[in-house]
């Protein structure tokens, strides 16, 4: 009985994603190279259509790099263990927005 219930839940989630899920694309404007000790500004543009609600953008950074948030568009931003995380309890209303960090 539990297996059938689990299968139906997974099938429902899959169908919901197909029906309600929109296209999301994220593009980053970042340099191809960096000098040791330098600081660069990186901008990530999020195109989300009409998707709303909770969301997390996680950016994995190469070893030795750290991140500091500049523009978060209302997200809480943390950096730990080589990962920069932008977390929104509710995404911005705009269909497209940008976040930035150094």
Written overview of the protein:
Mean pLDDT is 83; it is low at 1-8. The protein has 1 helix and 7 strands; from the N terminus they run H-E-E-E-E-E-E-E. A hairpin with a 2-residue loop joins strand 5 and strand 6. With 102 residues, it is α+β, with helices and mostly antiparallel strands. The strands form 2 sheets. It has a 4-stranded antiparallel β-sheet with strand order 1-2-7-4, with no helix packed on it.
Summed up, what is this model?
The protein has 102 residues and is an alpha+beta fold. The chain has 1 helix and 7 strands, in the order αβββββββ. The strands form 2 sheets. Strands 1-2-7-4 form a 4-stranded antiparallel beta sheet, with no helix packed on it. It has a 3-stranded antiparallel beta sheet with strand order 3-6-5, with no helix packed on it.
């Amino acid at each position: 009985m539990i297996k059938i219930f689990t299968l139906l839940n997974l099938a429902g989630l899959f169908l919901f994603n197909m029906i309600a899920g929109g296209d999301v694309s994220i593009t980053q404007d970042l340099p191809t190279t960096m000098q040791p000790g330098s600081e660069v500004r990186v901008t990530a543009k999020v195109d989300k259509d009409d998707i709303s609600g909770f969301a997390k953008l996680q950016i994995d950074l190469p070893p030795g790099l750290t991140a500091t948030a500049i523009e978060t568009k209302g997200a809480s931003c943390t950096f730990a263990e080589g990962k920069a995380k932008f977390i929104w309890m509710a995404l911005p209303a705009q269909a497209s927005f940008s976040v930035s960090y150094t």
